[in-house]
Amino acid sequence: MTLRQERSSVSRRLAYVVISVVFANYLGNAFFYVLQVSATLPRIAASLACLLSIGFLQLRVFSRPGSDLRSGRAYLALGALAGLVYVPMFFFPAAWPGMPGFLAGSALLVLPNRVRWLAFGLVALSNGVIQSFFVPTLPLVGQVYYVVSATVAGLVVYGLSRLPSLVRQLESVRSELAELAVSQERLRFARDLHDLLGFSLSAITLKVELARKLIGEHTDRALRELAEILGIAREALTDVRAVASSYRELSLTDEIESARSVLTAAGVRATIETEHAELSPRSKTVLATVLREGVTNLLRHSEATRCEITITGTGGQVSIDIVNDGAPAQVSTDRGSGLTNLANRATAIGGSLLAHAGADGTYRLHAEVPADSAPERQQEEGDRPARPAIATTFAQVLLTSVVVGYLLTTTTLVLNEFARIGGTGIVLTAIGLVGTVALVLGVSSRPRLRLSLVTRCAVLAGMAAFVYVPQLTYGDPYLGLTGFLAGSAALLLPSRAGWPAFFAVVISQGVIFGTNGFGAVEMAYGVMAATNHGLVIYALSRLRSMVTELHEAREELATAAVTQERFRFARDLHDLLGYSLSAITLKSELTHRLATLDPGRARQELTEVLEISRQALADVRSVALSYRELSFDEETQSAQALLSAADIEVTVKIDACDQLPTEVKVTLATVLREGVTNLLRHSKAEHCEIVLSSSQHLVTMDIVNDGIPSTERRSPDGSGIGNLTTRVRALGGDLHAGLTPEHTYRLRAEIPLPLN
Fold it and tell me: pTM of the prediction?
């Protein structure tokens, strides 16, 4: 289980345990009072049935994550809860004042925004009014106590019920953010593929067409073009690796020379002037990319005869202008993918890009970038999505509200004792209460504070003084917030010491009640109240901390998702484009040898190179968009043609594979591509055998060649084989590569077939 899964599951389990214990204490406290004042069997049974019904509705309807709280069932349950809260008050007025908190909190959960806080306030006020009705002599402080206690209980019910669903929502938000990060990474790959490989493949296509025309009549010129094709193809392979790994830093000087060569080969008269200051690597790369795209668009979409390229620098800005005379009569206002990518690149580092056709039939591409690309870093940081702080803020406000509510509740009890403890007692108790609350909000409810164990123990000692001194001085256990000390002990101390300290503090409250002459019911109340207060402080503090941790973990998740997507792109780039570019290189080398010996065969080979180049361009688009579904039949025919062109005798034995699942055929086609590519790159084979056999439960493909001497043992763990192994194992199969006893090299893929 991963760390984030552990955090999520711990958060949910913690919420369920705390909800159950706190709600049980509220209900148990009411039941103890029923036993004290209404100890008849029918009344006990009736009260128990009502309390259990309240607990059932709260846990199974209102506090259950995933419940539809806007449904008719929820409204019906809220009406039933209102009846269970108010009707028994006429029979158990002294035992029932803690129940309106359930109704108030559930109203916040169920009712719409317009009325829920109004209903919450009315329920809290009703608790004081009803108690005044049953106790006409109830002082104002007593009425305030019942209103505040219902308010605090309602917030506790609402908060503890809401936080588990917030954790679930955060998990969904994390997933969405990770998907967004992956989508952005896909766009980046699509942009880099277009900018880097689109130019190379377009240049190869152009030069192949030119070389095909020159063979026979201008063989020397054709050989030079073929040499350049080989150079471009090898550079494109480097680009594939660069795009798959990270951002590639282009050489502006190399791109200028490449543009001059390609334009000259296309019969375009090129004039290039450069004069600029030193550029940062990113600015240089953006200008090089603009130059690539501008020349690519010129070759693809215009019939230009001349082109002027000017790179100049003034102050902190450097500009590039690419002007040609091949603008069409009607120019679309749509920038297209390439220009949009360029504009995004320039804008990202604080630059700009313009493209327009002139009245004189010229077309101008103009870009400006800062010599120092520091603004890109600032923008990247500024563009980072802001953390959704709603859940964290909610948890903080809720915790503060509950703590302040408990403070007000205890204050009403203290004020009620004014006649007995006097002004000095009020001041002493007030200092204790304020000091306790300050330490809870400032220290113990912030578990992420880096405090030494000694400092934590000192904080707990100070809080113990604030809690116990007023209680022991005046013999009144109501004068301190004992539960706050219990919850703080669980938060600040290691688990092995924290929870024993928690229960020791809770028990101490019962002891203080007992030693001061209170009865069993009051003692039970003291223990339950301290337990509830402590668990609420602990739970809200820990859940707030976990919510913050989940927010931070989303970046880790997004990074992991992006990394996984990069691996997928690297694999697909290697499998698809690596094969095509290797084939272009191989056939170009073959054509170079045939140009003077057999011009007709050389032209035929160049025709195939042209087709492969166009297919590679389609592969660029397919990799950038999604996984390309290869055709096994097409790959088989292509492998036969390519091996034959390399003077390798090939034997193909293929069982009918029409009924194979699509994902199996795609994987087999990829294995075939990689196997043939490796054969051409790394061996001097004379014979190759490709065999595909399938049974009811298994399909096996073997690619066997005689191109590896018995003394040479290559590692089967290269990048290509590793990618294929990942693909095959994803389908439950296995892949083996290595020497055979017959001194041949065999690549075998075995994939189980699903049962029909």
Answer: 0.49
